[in-house]
Design brief:
By secondary structure, the protein is α/β, with parallel strands linked by helices. It contains 6 helices and 6 strands.
Length: 172
């Protein structure tokens, strides 16, 4: 890639991680190397099995303890997020990857697990050729301002409200 941009997928609707996964697969299909860092999340889902088939081009790391409960943050949650940000910063600055995805980083920022000023410094220092994708609800306005592309997923209707649980291969 000649120039890498900063993209954000945010909003309350379904599909933010799915969009980032699609971009990761598209990038791998073009021979680009992808670093896919998942903040907050801990569960291994179907997408991990699929991405494993591209392990020569897509590296997946999880830096979370699972769903965040309540307003108080645990030491484990904070440590996992800090480790994730440190490793992701290294992945970006190393230029070993063409695309770096920070899945659910917006949630980590909103929950106080990650410092927005540090993330902005990382984005400011990114090598020109690296594409960065940030996902999750509650995108910080300062990060939105820094981004080149922002897509908001808006829920209009969701079958979950009718009691449908997350399904393997569709939501997980």
């Amino acid at each position: 890639m000649r120039k890498g941009y900063i993209q954000i997928y945010t909003g309350a609707g379904k599909g933010k991680t799915t969009a980032a996964l699609g971009l990761a697969i598209r990038a791998a299909g073009a021979g680009h190397r992808v670093y896919f860092a998942q903040f907050v999340k801990k569960r291994i889902c179907s997408e991990h099995k699929a991405l494993g088939r591209f392990s020569d081009l897509i590296t997946v790391k999880q830096f979370g303890t699972g769903f965040l409960r309540g307003p108080a943050r645990t030491e484990d949650e904070l440590e996992a997020a800090l480790k994730g940000l440190d490793e992701t910063d290294q992945a970006i600055s190393s230029t070993a990857y063409d695309v770096v995805i920070l899945d659910e980083i917006n949630v980590a920022l909103h929950a106080g697990l990650v410092d927005v000023d540090r993330l902005l410094r990382i984005l400011d220092a990114k090598p020109p050729s690296v594409e960065i994708v940030l996902t999750g609800r509650h995108a910080d306005p300062r990060v939105v301002k820094k981004a080149d592309l922002v897509t908001e997923m808006r829920e209009i209707k969701h079958y979950m409200k009718k009691g449908v649980k997350a399904r393997t291969g569709i939501e997980m």
